[in-house]
Write a sequence for this structure.
């Protein structure tokens, strides 16, 4: 059954996905149609796999994932144009040694000429307040600036949805606040996996994944306190002591 | 050392990438054909003058060249014992020349221009089933990630030393390579996600 809102939603339809011999998701169905959605869960709960299923980097072993009505397994190229992906570590994402080239190359890969790509890239950088580091080498940028560059180079191509895997891990508080502010101004729908409860608190919906299943799902004001409570009550805490 | 571009535009930026690459290719052939150490030494001085002509940042870049010195010393010593001082001087100058010239090009040429310059050379490979634009991207990736890999090595060595391992950093080679393969996986995934390397 596909709800009527499928044209602007990420839809998991009875998705099964295994990692090695271990079944991570079995028969998972969920509809993501809110503008800003957070994904919460302990390490290994399946957040990264979940994100990669939404843009076709991974295909379900059974069931379907539909992004705005497109099946990720059938047309992953179309899905990747629709879904921009920002990774945790900017060093894994930045391919070019200078800022302008990094942004321009996305356009180049879409078939624009060298001059057009540069022009679009300059425009995108200016639009996000980064015009002044256009010619900077990426190695000169701080961690936060590099992550900002990753976001700009993905957003420049105007995807409808922005998917981020722990975008703020290892960034300091002022940088995290700055990037949150920047994200709030973007028109894209968003799906963010994060351990940063402050970031998640500002979203429309939070999904708590545990062992490949949805443990809680709802507004952050409901889900976050439960998550915190469960983490404190967790018997695993005792494992940290002799 | 190779990879990071200069932050300021210089006169060398204005030369076309294809010309610079051809020049390097030609220079390589000539330098391996020339045996007179004085000629090679004079060329080395010329190249160093180019660095000075480019300004402070380029000159500071020569500091990174220190990393090359142990290799040059070993090659020089070997050649000295095998064939005498003239040969040793020629070999060392040749190596230094090539590295310095290569870095001159890499620090003054935008990567996309370099890839575009490579494309016509790679185009015949199409008939073997390889995609030239993907190969050009591979070249770009190598140059981009040299500093990252170097940094990864230094960080591992630092962690090793912090835990008391003073000598024997050769032990880090295997985990370093394993780490590189993991980084390569991440990068491939990121390229896929951006639609730059569709299967």
């Amino acid at each position: 059954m596909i709800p009527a809102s499928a044209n602007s939603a990420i839809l998991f339809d009875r998705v099964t996905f295994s990692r090695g011999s271990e079944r991570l998701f079995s028969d998972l169905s969920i509809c993501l149609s809110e503008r800003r959605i957070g994904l919460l869960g302990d390490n290994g709960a399946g957040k990264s796999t979940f994100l990669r299923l939404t843009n076709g980097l991974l295909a379900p072993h059974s069931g379907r994932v539909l992004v705005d009505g497109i099946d990720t397994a059938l047309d992953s190229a179309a899905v990747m144009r629709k879904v921009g992906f920002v990774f945790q570590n900017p060093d894994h994402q930045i391919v070019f040694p200078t800022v302008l080239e990094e942004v321009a190359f996305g356009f180049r890969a879409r078939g624009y000429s060298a001059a057009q790509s540069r022009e679009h890239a300059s425009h995108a950088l200016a639009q996000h307040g980064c015009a002044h580091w256009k010619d900077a080498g990426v190695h000169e940028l701080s961690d936060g600036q590099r992550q900002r560059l990753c976001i700009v180079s993905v957003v420049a191509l105007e995807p409808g949805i922005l998917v981020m895997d722990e975008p703020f891990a290892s960034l300091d508080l002022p940088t995290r606040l700055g990037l949150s502010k920047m994200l709030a101004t973007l028109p894209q729908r968003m799906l963010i996996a994060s351990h940063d409860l402050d970031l998640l608190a500002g979203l429309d919906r939070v999904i708590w994944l545990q062992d490949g299943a949805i443990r809680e799902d709802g507004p952050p004001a409901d889900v976050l306190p439960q998550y915190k409570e469960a983490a404190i009550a967790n018997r695993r805490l005792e494992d940290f002591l002799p | 050392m190779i990879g990071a571009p200069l932050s300021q535009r210089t006169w060398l930026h204005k030369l076309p990438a294809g010309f610079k690459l051809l020049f390097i290719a030609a220079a390589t052939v000539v330098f391996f054909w020339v045996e007179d150490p004085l000629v090679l030494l004079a060329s080395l001085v010329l190249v160093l003058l180019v660095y000075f002509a480019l300004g402070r940042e380029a000159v500071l870049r020569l500091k990174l060249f220190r990393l090359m010195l142990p290799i040059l010393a070993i090659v020089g010593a070997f050649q000295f014992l095998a064939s005498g001082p003239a040969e040793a001087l020629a070999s060392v100058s040749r190596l230094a020349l090539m590295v310095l010239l290569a870095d001159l090009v890499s620090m003054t040429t935008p990567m996309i221009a370099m890839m575009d310059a490579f494309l016509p050379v790679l185009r015949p490979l199409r008939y073997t089933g390889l995609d030239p634009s993907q190969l050009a991207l591979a070249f770009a990736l190598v140059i981009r990630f040299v500093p990252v890999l170097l940094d990864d090595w230094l960080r591992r060595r630092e962690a090793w030393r912090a835990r008391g391992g003073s000598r024997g950093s050769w032990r880090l080679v295997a985990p370093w390579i394993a780490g590189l393969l993991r980084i390569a996986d991440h990068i491939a995934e990121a390229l896929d996600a951006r639609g730059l390397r569709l299967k």
User: Anything to note?
Assistant: The longest helix of chain A spans residues 114-127.
